Amino acid sequence: MALSFQERPTSAAVPPGEAPEPSIGDLVSEIGQDLSRLVRDEIELAKAEVKQESVKAGKAAGMLGGAGYAAHVVALLGSLTVVFALGNVMNLAWAALIVTVLWAVVGGVLYSAGRKRLRTVNLKPEQTVETLKEDAKWARHPTS
């Protein structure tokens, strides 16, 4: 007697207490979900790393901007004071030149300090790159 489509068993009989073997479709679906979750997690990690480094860069740039503004105000007001004070001892032109050189040195020191701080900023998401390398290694050799 032939079984109709609805009467045919859909899977082999499984002994009690054992889970049925997943089908190829289930495995492919699970791999797709795992890969999707992995990609989302890696993107979130990269975003967090880039945000952290961007904050450092923003602070360094703010410090450079603040130093520039402060140097400008001090240079304007202080320079006038020193030029006129030195003008009592020497020609006003020489006094202005001495003050200009002094502020050039101060500006160079501020620039050097800001540039040094910017060099510590690393926008490459190191942690993400490492985990991606590990993931690729695992994908090539899942048993190791």
From TrEMBL:
Q: Know the name of this protein?
A: Phage holin family protein
At the top level, the lineage of the source is Bacteria
**Where is the chain membrane-spanning?**
61-86, 92-114
Q: Which InterPro entries match?
A: Phage_holin_3_6
What are the leading ranks of the lineage?
Answer: Bacteria, Bacillati, Actinomycetota, Actinomycetes, Kitasatosporales
Pfam families in the record: Phage_holin_3_6 (PF07332)
For region Disordered, the annotated ranges are 1-22
Keywords from the UniProt entry? Membrane, Transmembrane, Transmembrane helix
